[in-house]
UniProtKB/TrEMBL annotation:
Organism: Streptomyces cinerochromogenes
Residue ranges occupied by any Flavin reductase like domain in the UniProt entry: 22-166
EC number: 1.-.-.-
PANTHER family reported for this sequence: FLAVIN REDUCTASE (PTHR30466), FMN REDUCTASE (NADH) RUTF (PTHR30466:SF1)
Record has DNA repair as a keyword: no
Pfam families linked: Flavin_Reduct
Full protein name: Flavin reductase family protein
One GO MF term attached to the UniProt entry: oxidoreductase activity
Gene3D superfamilies in alphabetical order: Electron Transport, Fmn-binding Protein, Chain A
Keyword annotations: Oxidoreductase
């Protein structure tokens, strides 16, 4: 006789079930940037994934209703920035709708391929967009790494239970 695990109270699939489940999943925090027709754009992402080492590919998701989507939809290159635990305010700024994301106190510069590169991050990459895959109300952007710098100092910023947190030992 096999034991049946206690399954609690299962819920039918819904946006809230997905959100509630992924609030329990700790994720690294990144900011994705691009050069848009009207200036730099960017957003906070927890969906950043390493896809392939040969060739070096990454992916991230973006909602088609996001203010950054029109620029990301047209961009040839994007910037990917891994944030440190000292950058929770920066992460919040890039996550907030209507924020002046590139105004003070955000420190950044024009980088390779015209991509906005944020200062003082743990690591940054400039990537060439190679695909945009429809996925519900989002697009999964695939991009090939062109160059970057992984030499920033510090510990990673994490997102868990709706809050930005530092890594604990």
């Amino acid at each position: 006789m096999t034991a049946t695990p206690d399954l609690g109270t299962p819920q039918l699939a819904s946006p809230e079930l997905l959100r509630s489940t992924f609030r329990r999943h700790a994720a690294g925090v990144a900011v994705i940037t691009a050069r848009g027709a009207r200036g730099p754009v960017g957003f906070t992402a927890t969906s950043l994934t390493s896809v392939s080492a040969e060739p070096p590919l990454i992916s991230f998701g973006i909602g088609t209703g996001a203010s950054s989507w029109p620029a990301i939809a047209e961009a040839d290159h994007v910037g990917v920035h891994i944030l440190g635990e000292h950058q929770s305010e920066l992460a919040a700024t890039f996550a907030r709708s209507g924020a002046d994301r590139f105004g003070a106190p955000t420190a950044w510069q024009d980088g390779p391929e015209g991509v906005p590169v944020l200062d003082d991050v743990l690591a940054w990459l400039v990537c060439r967009v190679v695909g945009r895959v429809p996925a519900g109300d989002h697009r999964i952007v695939l991009a090939e790494v062109v160059l970057g710098d992984p030499s920033g100092a510090g510990r990673p910023l994490l997102y868990h239970q709706g809050r930005f947190n530092g890594l604990r030992d």
